[in-house]
Amino acid sequence: MTNEIIKKVMITEKGSRLSAENRYLLEVAVDATKPQIAAAVEKKFGVHVLKVRTVNVKGGLRYIRGTRRAVTEATYKKAYVTVKAGERIEQV
Question: Domain span at residue 32?
């Protein structure tokens, strides 16, 4: 179940900067709720979750350079998870 909710730890510049503040950026299932996300993170990574904030990211239309084709990117959901001080989520 936790593998269905948590898709991946997002390794970005912003995600790396937030990890210094005990906040981590995760890509999660679109239909996942905040309590489900918190429970899945605690079970998978063995940390204590203090707060979960979510953002729905709408997929956009992208044009492929040099062609006349357009591609639609997928819609996904991001979760900003704050963990207890001193605990870490390993970014593999």
Answer: 2-83
In the block, residue with structure tokens 């390794």: 11
**pTM for this model (two decimals):** 0.85
Which residue do the tokens 């605690």 mark? 42
C-alpha 60/C-alpha 75 separation (Å) is 8
Q: Is residue 91 part of a domain?
A: no
User: What value does the mean pLDDT of the chain take?
Assistant: 91
| CA separation, residue 88 to residues 5, 28, 45, 46 (Å) | 19, 18, 8, 9
User: Cα–chain-centroid distance for residue 87?
Assistant: 18
Query: Which residues are within 8 A (CB) of 15 and not within 5 positions of it... i.e. 6 or more apart?
Result: 9, 24, 25, 91
